Amino acid sequence: EAVNIAKSQYNSRWIKNAYGQKALKEVSSKPVICSGSTMGSQRAIELYSIAMVAQFDKTKCKQVGCDQGFHNYLYYEGGLKPFLQSH
Length: 87
Hints:
mainly alpha, 87 residues, single chain, globular
């Protein structure tokens, strides 16, 4: 059974530390998506990787696990669309 982001202390913390309380509230009811389950075409994964690195640059989050927070935030908040549409 899927766990909501709000019920996961780890995912909640990663998103809150990277994006703030408001962002956490926006995605808190969504199920956690494991960043280790990322698949796609070579080009899609390249663009995903660019988007993920951009999140490290944007948020400056260096906490272990921030990539999981980025992954969920990008998916639920539509943050991958600009990268996919521009290429």
